[in-house]
Each structure stands twice: as structure tokens, then as C-alpha cells.
Design a protein that fits this description.
single chain; 213 residues; alpha/beta; 7 helices; 13 strands; 26% helix; globular
């Protein structure tokens, strides 16, 4: 199984995960890897469902192992913790934050209030779902009107996705997830070559890293 934390250069402190197409899966994959030898907090600055496999608390002191910290809200979800992300960063070696929502779409463009990245985040990883590459914007993208305004296209092809990501410039690196068929791998590589930041092409479901750009 690939070491995603190592390949994505996850450093101690706060890491924010944004985008679509596998944010939560990446969050828990990184948490699992890092907690083998470190203390880890997972949380959100927006909304997530409480993880079934990680203990969840409202507040915490110094963490040993792996813990989810959050505040219950509507629809059985958790929202941002009562404690600040600055405080949480003093209580665990790593703090992993899901900082975006994509309404279960593989691709995402961002409104002015998004994403909600903690001020003390030392890295922002944008997840892109390869299943959305080549599909109609209305079908594959959360905030399709913003995506079309930025890209000038109604098809989410590699050039359009790259135009949006490069213009938004909200991230430090990109993980293109769902690269689990020859067609998706080819499309992911085409997209990766157009981006202006480090890119990892992978399948989180298979636990495989395909290539690095």
C-alpha cells in the first residue's frame, strides 16, 4: 500500500484538504498512516459526518493516538471544534482538516466564502476526482456557474479544470484521485501536466499512487 502522507509531504501542524472526489477518504487515510507513530486530530472547518472508526469529542487536552474533535450540528454532522485550530495544533503532532464541501461531486469551483482554510494551515491539498474529467460541468462540478465563468467552458475537460485550479490558486498541491482505469489515468496525466503545482495521481480506493508530477 502506498504511503500517501510521505508522498504528499504532510508536515507536523495543520493540513487543510479541499476540493472534491475523495476529501474525506484522504483525510482518514492520512490519519491512519500518521497515527501509527504520531498523535493526530481530525476535524472540519465546514461539515462532516462523525467517523465511525475514530473516537469523537467536543474538546480535548493533549492527544495520544487518533481523535476526532468537532461540534455536533444539523443532520447528524459535525462542524468546527469549539477549540481554535491554533490551540489544537498545540495538542497533537498533526491536525488534519476537511476544509471544503463539494455536494458529492468529483470537481469543485469555489465561491467567495470558500474554502474555509485555517489561518495556521501549513499546507492545502486540493483533491480532484478523475471520474469528473471529460463530463459536462453541470453534471460533474459543484458550483458549475463559477467553474464555467472561470474556464469559459461547459465541458470539464483537462484544460478547463486546469484553468480553474490555476486561477483559483487556493492550494499548495493537487491529488488527482479515482485514477483507477486506463482512461481515467490518461485523463489525469493530461490534467496534471497543465497544473502549476506538485501533483499526485492516485487511487485512494485501491491504495495506489500512479505517478507524480
Amino acid at each position: 500500500m502506498a504511503e500517501f502522507a510521505k508522498q504528499l509531504n504532510i508536515r507536523p501542524g495543520v493540513t487543510a484538504i479541499i476540493g472534491g472526489g475523495g476529501k474525506t477518504t484522504l483525510l482518514y487515510r492520512l490519519a491512519q498512516e500518521l497515527s501509527e507513530e504520531n498523535s493526530v486530530i481530525v476535524a472540519t472547518s465546514t461539515h462532516i459526518f462523525p467517523p465511525e472508526h475514530i473516537p469523537c469529542v467536543l474538546r480535548t487536552g493533549r492527544v495520544s493516538g487518533l481523535l476526532c474533535v468537532g461540534t455536533p450540528c444539523e443532520n447528524g454532522k459535525l462542524t468546527a471544534p469549539e477549540q481554535s485550530f491554533e490551540e489544537l495544533a498545540q495538542l497533537a503532532d498533526y491536525v488534519l482538516i476537511e476544509a471544503d464541501g463539494a455536494a458529492r461531486r468529483p470537481l469543485k469551483a469555489h465561491d467567495t466564502h470558500e474554502p474555509v482554510i485555517p489561518a495556521n494551515a501549513n499546507q492545502v491539498i486540493c483533491v480532484v476526482g478523475a471520474s469528473g474529467i471529460g463530463k459536462a460541468v453541470e453534471e460533474a462540478v459543484h458550483r458549475p456557474q463559477i467553474f464555467t465563468a472561470l474556464s469559459g467552458r461547459t465541458l470539464a475537460d483537462p484544460e478547463a479544470i486546469a484553468a480553474v485550479l490555476n486561477q483559483e490558486h487556493l492550494h499548495d498541491r493537487v491529488l488527482i484521485n479515482q485514477a483507477d482505469t486506463p482512461q481515467r489515468i490518461a485523463a489525469a496525466k493530461e490534467l496534471a501536466a497543465l497544473l502549476t503545482c506538485p501533483v499526485t495521481v492516485a487511487s485512494l480506493q485501491k491504495g495506489e499512487i500512479v505517478c507524480l508530477f
